[in-house]
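Lab manual, section 2.4: Encoding a predicted structure.

Procedure: take the sequence of the chain (254 residues), apply the prediction step described in section 2.3, and record the output as structure tokens. A sample record is shown.
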Amino acid sequence: MLVYPVGVDLSTSALRFLARELTARRRERGTRWRRLPAGRQALLVLAHLRSGHTYAQLAAGFGVGTATAYRYIAEAVDVLAALAPTLAQAMKTASTKAYVILDGTLLPSDRIAADRPFYSGKHKKHGMNVQVITDPAGRLLWASPALPGAVHDIKAARTHGIVDALDEVGVECWAAKAYRGTGGTIRVPYWGRWTTLSAGQQAVNRSHAKIRALVEQAMAPLKAWRLLRKLRCSTTRITSLVQAVLTLHLNCSN
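Recorded output:
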């Protein structure tokens, strides 16, 4: 295999943050020696998450075995995922905001046609459903555990307890038509054809759409991590990957 140097479009703050957490993990476990120091392990993991390089590619580039690269990545992902904010913590932050925005996204995966639970009829592809909550400026506050792509957004919101959590803290939430009937503090646009809505309802829907458009600013940082653009791992690991990326985004954003 040919090996060549390649850059990763991340700031050094992400590398320092992850290296610091891995060093603490090694001290906690009493690890005396590793093939790669914490800084190099952190770089390997970031290259995997950000650029989507395979275990074999990373193993060749860092001079370790493929199994070792896998273990390094799995360890770091678990460390990062454990630091991701819970829904309760996100609600504590949300309670200080004027309102929040809720939306769902599909993370495409390599599931096959036989894997019907992972097929999203809305997006016409296989993947995993992830719900995100942002503040009024479009900054990401929380990302949910991943559910099969066939799960509807409104069901996902109820499954994760988002509706009850928002209602408990009394924070208004703007959401899409897919959440119609959710209740609580979740606000959705008026339902119906544009021509059948009154002028006032149309104005409300336009205003609603402008507010909701900010959620795309929160989706973009998630999709910037190329590993999440086409998931090729076990579906049981996807939640940890999303939470790991969320932790890096919240702690290392400029």
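Check your result against the sample. The chain is about 45% helix and 10% strand.
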